[in-house]
## 1
Amino acid sequence: MQRKKKRTSKTARRRDPHASREASRYGQPIASRELILEVITETDHPVNRADIEALLGINDPDGVEALRRRLNAMTRDGQLVRNRRDCYARADQFDLVPGRVVGHQDGFGFLVTDDEGDDVYLSARQMRALFHGDRVLVRITGLDRRGRREGNVVEILKRNTQHVVGRFYNEKGVQFVIPDHKRLPMDIAVPAGESDGAKHGQIVSVEIIEQPSKRSPPVGRVVEVLGDHMAPGMEIDIAIRSHDVPQAWPPEVEAEIAGLGEQVPTKAKRGREDLRELPLVTIDGADARDFDDAVYCEATPKGWRLLVAIADVSHYVYPETALDKEAFERGNSVYFPERVIPMLPEVLSNGLCSLNPEVDRLCMVCEMIFNREGRMIRSRFSNALMRSHARLTYSEAAAIMVDGDKQARKNRQPLLPNLDELYRLYKVLRKERSKRGAIDFETTETRIVFGAGRKIERIVPLVRNDAHKVIEECMVAANVAAARFLERHKMPTLYRIHATPSGDKVTELQEFLNELGLGLRGGRKPAARDYSAVLEQAKGRPDEHLINTVLLRSMPRAEYSPDNIGHFGLAHENYAHFTSPIRRYPDLLVHRAIRHVLAGNKPRTFPYTVDNMLGFGEHCSATERRADDATRDAIDWLKCEYMLDKVGETYTGIITATTSFGIFVELQDIYVEGLVHVTALGNDYYHYDPTRHWLIGERTNHIFRLGDPLSVKVVQVNLDDRKIDFELSEKQQRTTGKKGGDKVTEKGKAKSRSGRKRKTSLRRKSR
């Protein structure tokens, strides 16, 4: 104690370069993480908390407590390591790597490092004590036989899995649950008396009461019996719980929304721009229930005036309320077949915030002026009051604007000037889009049609008409205007970014295109217009689908970030999500930033910093991926269920992916994908070429390539694993088994027996 007092008394509080940032976040001043790491680095040995207090000049009780909490948080996040003597050191001083565990269904796993370096391989032995998603510290031990970094787990920083959904088994008194999530390849032991009455084979939700260790499996108790394995709607219940999608509203949220009615309060309408007489209309899908955007367009002497009105969610959802915290946790609405898990309660999403026809609604309006070439000359934002004059479906809007349907136009006579000008503006914007070089991938999305008892009748493609594209262009324009507005006012916000493809992905793509006689300009960092040029060259080719697919797979996924690097796919330097605050939390943050500026406030008084936005962006990107994974799981289950009674039937399909273990085939007109394992490809040894995206037979030289048509037979459907297995049809086997059907030249190009180059046929990342 004497040493501590002596050092503290002689050490002045050290100046923190990030003091203003920390003061804006916390009422009690607290040393920044950067400063703590700096002072620990300056020592040549681990230091205890008393030493750190002295080094920072902290001697007041509140400061000591704040430091204690921060050190605990930094240890939890893997920035610091605490040894058995309660001394702290930087994790990298021990050559330890923090990151998140990604499990594999075969038992091994990988560490996705925080520094975004190469993944670290974790053996099945290391994974015995871990769940997918756990945060750990790993020591690199060397390279595995494949040349990958391999590591041993030193410390588990944070457990990710507290609940698991799976199938309950009771075998001779031994109770356990096999998780539905394929990245959790370990059984959960269920002690006697903890089954909650579950029967053998039922789907249950399990609370983990003992995490796994190297010597024992995880232990859990059944907290909810979801029902029988094949019960209608079970696929969605499983997906929701497997991916931890929040669905129940906390009591605090219920309390906050209890006083909301169906009508906008009179007080809320004051001080807003009144647009109720302007014929704004909504254009959405026939099954849409929440309407967050409305549009109006009119001609001007030099071009057009476009208004995009967006539901003013920020008026009802205030920062740090229970409602706001729950919306953030959800991140976005999740859309399952015939079921939605909304980001906001229905009283808001389908009620007060939804731009329903013929009722007053609060909105934020983006007014844009375009010249005759489709270039945005200026824009402005305002808080407004509107009344939608009509709710149009895409089909009805297309009939009016595109087809010129006389009856449809007669039914909407007062709206025709607006809609006709909207379509004229759209055609100009499409030309400007092409000139800009934005990338347009044509992909097929599907919809599952249910019959009685929620039995799947068919799977049909979703048809996009020009009305979809009209609204899409309007929303893109408003998103660009929002990003430019916030960039101009230097506001911390979330941008929707899409990085430029680079590195090995581009190199592999260029090698692939060279094989087809095509070239990708732009060197190591091509521009969007370079991609578009390839797509244009590919139009009408037999291998157009193949080229589209490979181009798409070469691009990174779009995400949210305060670092505005632009949007590669759309070829925009500034882009932010503004148009869907009912179903996306980033849009709500953008609205709050715009509202802050409109109120005449400065960026420094905004309650969110760039660092806050960084955390928001990571979280919202993660919830977006969670929603995609959950919906894909549910849809895969439904497709497997649809194919259960089709085992033994033969179909024509197209190869959608090639791997070292086989080929994936999508059935034509059914839109269901399955695997033909490499062992079912015929009496030959097949080698995988990742550059050319093909499997080639060693004896026959037969090639299976992306986009090739194929006749296959359904041999097995595994509902639990969401897998469908195909084999080649008898006719296809006879074709495949012939020798010399395809030759491979010295340059690696496939040629037919006649010597002609072999042609192939083939098939959107989130905006």
## 2
Amino acid sequence: MAKEFFPELKKIKFEGKDSKNPMAFHYYDENKVIMGKTMKDWLRFAMAWWHTLCAEGADQFGGGTKTFPWTDADPLQMAKNKVDAGFEFMQKLGIPYFCFHDVDLISEGSNVAEYEKNMKAIVAYIKEKQKETGAKLLWSTANVFGNKRYMNGASTNPDFDVVARAIVQIENAIDAGATKLTVEIKRGGITFIRITDDGSGIERDDIRNAFKSHATSKIRTEEDLLGIGTLGFRGEALASIAAVSKVDVLTCTAEDDIGTVYKIEGSEEVLLDDAGCPKGTTIIVRDIFYNTPARMKFLKKDVTEGNSVAGVVDRIALSHPEISIRFIRDDKQVLVTKGDGKLSGTIYSVFGKDFSNTLVSTSYELDGIGVDGFVSLPVGARANRSMQFFFLNGRLVKSVTAQAALEQAYKNSIMVGKFPSCVLSITTPLNFVDVNVHPAKTEVRFENEKRVFDAVYYATKMAIDEKDKPNKLDLSKMDLKTEASNPFVKESSKSYEQTTITELPKRKENFWATELPPQPKAEVPKREAPVPYKRQQEVKPTVVAPPNQEPVEVVPDYRVIGEAFDTYIIVEMDGKILLIDKHAAHERMLFEKLKAEASREASLEGVKSQVLLAPVAVTLSKEEYSVLLQNTDILRDAGFDIGDFGDGTVVVREVPVMLIDDDVKALVEEMAGYLLTSQDPTPEKLDWIYHNTACRAAIKGGDKTTAIELDKFVNQLLSNPDIRYCPHGRPVLIEMSRSELEKQFGRTL
């Protein structure tokens, strides 16, 4: 029978706000119904093991000041006493959930085998208490920060390239037949990374060979090279990891009663022994580059490395929706997929609702090439290709062929400079593709590129043609019967007798002459032709000249004649005809305005920005997300206030004033794509942002413009003789002299 640690206390009850009992609930009534639910359902409390049962009151000034009645025993009995006390505490307070770190339950022991043994024993005891009480585990995790051994980090990324080391561990877990996969990192993977799967495990006799260079279980014969269906197969990853770090492996096969623990440090074996562990494999890497510290400087910032790992996990999840993947980052679960094989649910988990809503499904097969997945509707086109994902036989690939086929299917459906998104899984016979082109295994060659092109093209084309049909007016399904009504007759006096016209009356000859009485001829005022707007001479802009100098006229005399195609302004000036591209000219003027405002940063003015009425959330790829957050200072200088919304999404709060009515989401996507690939220095990055901001804010060709607006526009343009080319390098105006014009008409030679 379990010992009672709080015998003087009974179950805490609700007694109301007027109660003087300190051991009663004054406001929390678990049975009170609020908005259709009880307070117990609204407030689902959980007991934190470490705070309630482990915190001894220690701080930086001294040791603990609390003593607990369950500590005077051997480690296992002490752990059981804590369990008894914890469950008694939860029952008397009515707390339905609890959570813990592993070493909060029981001492971890002197080695891995002892740790596993202790944990197995105490977990079994807790399960018995759960059956007795009905208490449920909210969550549990591992404490890899409390022990002094972790003063410089628990472990770290398995190679100096975080992404490479993360992905090879994940790949090996998947190849082992795992249905569940957990990836956990801290500080972007620089101090801790652990991969756990429930796969087939590793035979003890194979563990040593797994860490030898170029040793692989994936390739057994020469013929296997022609049909590779696994992810990892080169036998390089584990050997490279072990050479520069301390590695722990816990593994157990389905046939083994006892698992195996294997430790290797700097390619030197330290331990090979029995261990209690579940089926599958856990790989932990510690003290990366402990023997090659010079390579530590090549690691990037925590945020950058973490987002790179997150990007890898995203792609693995998308390529294998049948595997439940959990990603924990700095003790926070940021991704979990169901593993039910449904790609739509996985896409939603990875990228969220906004991106998912732009996609339509497709499934197509052509000559043995299968294409399944999702493509975006034309309205979901983006400023770059960052959201195009192609998977070949379960492996992420970069295929120029598939990319070209995808974009060809959208020809004449999306704007130039925009790109569709997709998550497409391509299935081919294994001998149809060569994955040995590059060590990264992302570049592939097909036996027949055209077959792949056609399959992707038709799969995409049929999907968007089916889902993106224009609305049509079908007159055959409309009821064209109408009822004549007199607006001067009250509703109550109307007759609702229905009449149906079965035949239209034949038109009579000279109908209008015979049926209508002659009418007097009305005088219709004659409409005068529009007169080109001419600026008044007396308002010529001038600048104040220095003393003893004549005033300088900024703008010569001109006359705005009109506009052609709502795009080109026609101006007469100084015996010449000017044709002005209003978009190009306006773009350049806005560009110069942004640069001028930015140059005033020293006076605390800078680029004028406007707070958005409703902040705009933008979902990006993890790489774009990372680089955008790294460049928030640059973006702030350009008038953008962009913050972190979490898990691949940023939130835009402020934009330059001129962009208030513009497509903010598309511009942010475009900036993220540019910053991801750009190696330009900061000034050139700012110029690029100013340029694209001005381009989006500028008046577009085809937009209607009044005569007064045209005159004001021309006045501003001609006031600045330096504006002759847009930021793209195109001319903003073309001149034609009167003599050249007369030559064209043959008036002069």
## 3
Amino acid sequence: MNLTRLVSSTTSMTALLAVLLCATGVQAASVADASEQEAQAEQGFTPTARSYARSFSEMGAGSYELIGLNNNAYLNVGVRADEVVESATLELNMSYSPAMLEGLSHFKVYLNNEVVGIIPLPKQTSPEPVVQRLNIDPRYFSDFNQLRLSLVGHYTLGCEDPAHTSLWANISKDSRLLLKVSPVTLPNDLALLPAPFFDKRDNRRLNLPFVFSAQPSTDTLAAAGIAASWFGQSADYRSARFPATINSLPAGHAVIFAKNGDRIRGLNLPSVSGPTIDIISAYKRPAVKYLVIRGRDGGDLRKAAQALALGNVLMSGSQAQIRSVDLGKARLANDAPNWVRTTSPIRFAELIKEPYELQRSYANRDPIRLNLRLPPDLFTWRVRGIDIDLRYRYTPPISHDNSLLGVYLNNQLVTAYPLLPGQQTDAKQLNLPVLDEASIQAKKVLSAPPFYVGVRNELQLRYQPEVSKKNLCSSPISDSFVAAIDPDSTIDFSRYPHYIAMPNLSVFAQAGFPFTRYADLAQTAVVLSDKPSAGDITAMLNSVAKFSATTGFPGVRLSVATVSTVDKVADKDLLIIGSPAAIEIRTQWIPGLPSYMTRVMRVLRSSQAQTDAESSWLTAQGDPIARRDITVMLSANGEHSALTSYQSPKSPGHTLVALHATSNDSLQKLFDAMDRNELAERMQGDVALVNGEQVDSFRTQKIYHVGHLPVMTRLWLVFSGQPILLAIASIVLGLFVAMLMFFGLNYLAKRRLVK
């Protein structure tokens, strides 16, 4: 009996222990699965229920300074098409005037022009910022949303000036919007493209995995590059990353490239008879979508990718079979849709989306902003400036003592015009000097043209009216002034030729030049090693996406080659990805490549065939290191990445740019650095070494020029750097003219004597 009880007890304890072990195992497995899902989610968007917080800076806004009647702050909030908001909380980090009255002063919060709450402003007793929270009814959210914060401030119970300087509040860029969202299953419909793979409502960086069945061919890589360029063009300012995976499906949305016979784990794809584009759901996860680009061979994949980039608006249903794709004529140089036209004056109406963007009132004094993306190769030497034909209107009555229209370029004052009474319409011929300070510094350091128009510029027109403050309590100040810039005003860049000194990593890091010179990438070829790693493929996809985000047009004519086939694309601008490919190209083409690195070896070499001015190595701070014919070789095991650029030895006038690093992680961090303006501006010269937050740039080789100049401008340019040659040429020219005059006068004298 005791034995039976002992056995029974032992059995029970064993069973209990087994249950506990199983439970522990299940828990461990769940934790492992969660960790795996979290790691996979970093590679792309996963449609699951989630909660997240986005700061104002992460949503593309900054800090807000609200003063007097300029009392509105606007924030755009997008909700993905495959998500729905369940709860929302606004968390404001702010400071405000201690002069404002408690109980009367507050923030009125609007969502899509509907009042969703009031945030009171208690009496300010300390200079420390105050954090206030407001729950927002999720039913007010749609796909595109505008959050408006309106400051209602009062400093006295009697008659007051609505524009008084004591009425102010500052909202920090660290303020947040906390959202809880749930997934929505979308139909498998190509008409929704680029959603859900890229959703224009989502202002975060695009992270979209690209999946291949095996080591992809150059045609397959070209197809992937074309698709990435289209997604990059759509993402624009958000930037994009395309992690490449081989025979492995991610947890979320993905783009898959497969030829007939290719097998991808967890996916069964039937054969097709030609270029085909499908959208399908993941197995047992209908909210997860795959965009499948298929074909019989790499050529079919390329054609399908071109159809996706150019003809996606024509697609509907779950599948599209591509019959033909006609790319038409190749694009001309410097005609990117995102760049301002440089062949003729451009109207302000062409630089805005809505007419009201050129209008302002007394209550809305925000500057009128015109974004000017320019080709980086505009040659501004010996040019007075940018011609602007400015026309504007405003309404009386105004006090003309301090009322101005200020013209700014990149936040620097150019000029200001007084707003005179009775002169409600005016037209001005304005000559706008080039004020891109960073580019001027690059000129001084890197021997760039004396005046260099920035790639991204902002022209600001600021109305600064002053209204008479007599009878404040009886006159509606807020409606007393309305002004507008005429949409027929023009700005003219047509006098600038396209001519630039190369190599210049500054224009590559900021604008992808020279590859973006042709928006369809017709003159661009990406060169990889014969067996590129997933990291190299990722870097290629990220690069072409960045190019198309700059130009606003997909790279449908992109070429991809390997080191063994690089001679076929030697007449193009080459982007070399990865240290193995850079080293092999260096060995084959240029033994004197200025810089390269492997996991353990780093080399930096200067050129000996330069003038004293051109042979300087320049640090990021611009300090010259007067060395010539120097080679530094060392071994190191830390993380490092580099950009190098040099003229193609096979095709003069074309440029080679190499991206290489000690590891795939370092290669991806290089793109992160180029996405940050403050780091991209430091990448100059022909060698840029990147290590975390540190960027060091060098000039190691002789410059060359890309583009064309008028004959007289070219002569002036040549002689400007050669004063001795200019003096000799002037003396020779003077002697020649004197001899002509001497012999001419002698001839005329002899003719008179003969007669």
## 4
Amino acid sequence: MSSWKVELSVFRFDAQKDYNPCYEKCVIEYFDDDMLSGVLQSLPLKDFEYHRNIALKINNIAVFDDIKIIDLVKEFGQEWVLEPLSIRYAFKDLLIDREAVLGFYHRFLESGDFLSSDEKTELTKFININFISPQKNPEYYGDGFFLYIKWLLKRHPQQAKRLLESIGDVKNGVMNFVSVADFVYPKSRQIDKEIFEIQKMFTNGSRCPIKGNKWLNFTSKINEKYQFQKPIIGKPQEGIVYAIFDGYEKKINYKPLIFSVRAMFEKLGLKTLSLEFCFDGGYWGRFCDEEKFLFANAYNMALAHRYKSIFLLCDEDAYANILYAKKIIDSNSDVLEKINQKLKDYDLCYDNTVEIRYLNEMIVNDIKLKFSQQFNGFSTLMFGGSLTSQIDKICYKDFFKRMTLKRYEGSIQNESYAHLFEVSEESALLQSAEIRYGAIDLGVDFLLTLSTGQFEMFDTWSKKSSRYYKRDFDATPVLFLPELVLLAMGEKDPKKIGLHLHKNKVNFI
């Protein structure tokens, strides 16, 4: 029977005698049927402690199941960093101090006079969930705590107001949640779905028992961004035409993305079309008023279809919104009928045969690109958006290989705090700065992003976020994928790429 090896760097710490942790290296040999529990048990480390029920992180990703090593190698490669779920609460090696974690909730538990002792003890079952999230905010209440509150809501519906108020804080409460689907293995969207439901209790007035709920004003501000107008319908163009979605919130800088897409398509001989698309709801639309969110996305799809064009989504979050909306509309005849009744006022009709394409998928898999410019000696790291976990991953390996561009990869690339900007500006900018500088410190020449929201954090707000992070400003630029493609195709004029529309000057060309 064949065997293989994995190189480990294992977190070592004893809170009773160590001031700082260290990492001890070792190599393990494994066979096809070896399990994680067996490997942990056989590690050649003196006085090594770990959670027997499996609760640890491998390369910053939480693992709670006893999984075959061969499957873990497929996911994490053959070099692992083993750490406790929380370094902040590290007690002994991979064990955390659970009593210290519970101490964070002492005030809540003491004030919960309606809770039985068993219900208070139940919180311990949710603690591990807190540490899946990549959140950098040490005062964040924790996703496990939010799920605990949801559990209590079912047992004490008469205490709903009190329970929801306990997690409604602007800076540290449930509205600061970021997706954890990509930070647990095996990947799961279940926690995301559960917490999205809690968030909707705050943003949907009919479901929130809190009088004067401050989050209803938040919902009103999101809803004010929708502007629908009856389009002036012209004659459709002949042949294949791409209608490029540009219905972003007007105050964000999406112009470099749209400019570069049009420039790239022009070079490729592909026709594009400008239409008056409406705001699609952004990140928060689906939480605040799902009916308006669905109508806005149906309006945009119907408008593109009316011109017999292919509806092209150029950033990850807008594409995720369309997929989410289309799935609901196509599967619910009542919703479809209601939407089409309203669309009559705009001389439009939603048709589920509308052709939708995602730009980055086309760039990587469909469009035959000829690169005349190579990036030998250059490196980058590519960030997704706040809804990155909602769409299928694209394999970019061969794409970057063709232009000889080194791409760093790691869990950091799936972090995004852009959507928190409307909840807590300071939190969004501070945490965005931390991941931005985390990439810069790797030595990259530029950053890449698939999201207009992330671009805002890394370009428009980069100086202010640096001040929050208390670090001297570094002007390392961020590019969209079509801008990189234009550079690889040999274009050197910044004004023909859209680089002149960036706030931070792009100097590496």
